[in-house]
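Example 3.
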Amino acid sequence: MVKKSGPLRTAKIDIRDVASRAGVSIATVSRVMNHVPTVDAVLSARVWEAVEELDYLPNTQARALVSGKSRLLGLIVSEITNPFFPELIQEFERAAVKWGYEILLGSTNYEAKTMELCARRMLERKVDGVAIMTFGIDDFLLDRFEADNVPVVFIDPAPARPLSSFLAVDYYAGIHEGVEHLVGLGHKSIGFISGPRRLRSAATRKATFLESLRVAGLKAEPAFIVEGNHTLDGGRDAMQKLLALRKQPTAIMCSNDMTAIGVQHALFEANLKVPDDFSLIGFDDIHLAEYTIPPLTTVRMSCEDIAQKAVENLLSRLRGDAGGVAAASLVMTRLIVRQTTGKPKRAVRGAAASSTKSKKR
Amino acid sequence: MVKKSGPLRTAKIDIRDVASRAGVSIATVSRVMNHVPTVDAVLSARVWEAVEELDYLPNTQARALVSGKSRLLGLIVSEITNPFFPELIQEFERAAVKWGYEILLGSTNYEAKTMELCARRMLERKVDGVAIMTFGIDDFLLDRFEADNVPVVFIDPAPARPLSSFLAVDYYAGIHEGVEHLVGLGHKSIGFISGPRRLRSAATRKATFLESLRVAGLKAEPAFIVEGNHTLDGGRDAMQKLLALRKQPTAIMCSNDMTAIGVQHALFEANLKVPDDFSLIGFDDIHLAEYTIPPLTTVRMSCEDIAQKAVENLLSRLRGDAGGVAAASLVMTRLIVRQTTGKPKRAVRGAAASSTKSKKR
DNA sequence: CGGTAAACCGTAAACGTTTACCAAGAAGCA
DNA sequence: TGCTTCTTGGTAAACGTTTACGGTTTACCG
């Protein structure tokens, strides 16, 4: 507010300006700014006053250069354009700032080349830790992180390495619940649209689905398992493949919600109804899932949970709590029943029309 | 690849290591890394070789500290969770990396306090320029950017200031096209669901809508103009308000696509059909718009265009091409007709059922 | 009242680059 | 051959912080 501090110099003000205005040394200013407790209260007050008056902002790069800590956390995701990730990013950032960290974002678009670029940026900007929320990473990149002593956390099991750790997701709970729900409704042939092959978590989801089928006493029809890529287009295309089949499943589970929305669209174009003609279950429970028409039954995986656990994991290792290699934290999943699941057509006995109306929330 | 370089030192390698391995001075290494042309080809080759062998990555913060350029562009958006922004961000980043820049992301969530924090981060990290793609910013923050000599670009007209500039969006073209389309179908009372009041671009969209109505010879019914907030929930709530009205519009235009999707949901819940009971037009044309059920008629505003123009604007001013205050570049909008618009119920003469089927793409 | 310990603060040396300036060698010209 | 002019590489001084170290003051105890 005080403007008398001079002729509004265009030159940026630094710690020396603050020091001289407060009548102390730069070391003291630094200590005050870093909340070092051993500085006298009156000096501290003078410093803060000077900081206010001069609108002083410390230079992050100088700080990072000498201290060796950037207070930056890297976050590498698959595709920022898939709504699941913005939700994740938001939570991750929230968790990070709570501890005084900022985030550096990277999006791989499922390309190894881009992943390498992202990793390189993270290294160059000297992030203190990295969360990798997409497919696996080449070993030589992990070597680099290790060489620079930066901890890494993955989603889903990753190769055991000195500085890397992972978050375990209990896919089984939710997915199993999903097929049980379908079986309970009378479905006997259930299709699955997977994610991109390279994405580890997608592979796990598919394997878990297969396992659930087995447990439920159904056997998998290979033709009903088709590969998607976690996008709207991929879901649409995959469903079209399924529709081209002679014999078709009566229900479809999808590796993520975007795929399911693509499926809904394919069905709409084919003039088919959900859940009358096909039952549909997604995965992730993005906010949008509540808003599709009809609202999507899906498996919820809390991205808040994931984000929090990821940064906690990273930070605890930064504090030297070590351990870390094994992941203690388990992320839960569970089924959210909305309106894309119903009895299969062929199984319908009497009350055919009423199945659409069951608005479970 | 070559591992003989020593016992895999955990210490990070710096420019000195490269220099000594290549048998040159650090100045030469620096020159090589920065592609300064006056360095001898054979030395240059030796340096690159050493860089390869040592996996050397320059320290960005040291670089930035001394050169005064961070090669970082700030991007402040409203809400990362609104799919329009990820698409924007992706394009912005693409454009930035093309010129060797990286981006620092900030999301305000429509809160002035958060905006201030974002701006502060940008300043601290010493971004070379900032694009502000959300509501206006407090003057004192602009002062800070000016004091630090960092150029700013806004979307939509902003106060004229030495270092700030803006992108002009031709809202009128698309929105006018939208109401003309509706009028052509026979609609006479058209409602509008706006964005958050504080968002300048939202205010402009609403004003433009009103202007288009006037031009079309219709008069605005105040009760049909309701405030949303550019989210799914906001759209749903706003539509519920409209549905509670005694007399209702036959068509609704929305300030963005998320709002329109919320509206579709509200209509679905009320067991009303689009476009039979209500025609609906969105704004933005996010990728998802093609996938709603039915697919959304909307006004396209190319975020690729916006992103490219924003970084070009920033970079040209960084290069000192100056000028800049006035925005030469105009971003166009145009209507994309899909399946949420049709004749109003009351105006339907004979072929009522067929209107749904007109699949224009 | 003298001496020791504790509490604070300032000086200066890092941190890893870029870059202005200078020196040395090569090449061209008389 | 000797002098000038390029060319090219190296030396060293920044950049804005943090922090180890040492020095000065104050407090406390005998």
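Residues 24-28, 31, 38-40, 43, 62, 64-68 of chain A lie near DNA strand C (CB under 10 Å from a C1'). The longest strand of chain A covers residues 72-77.
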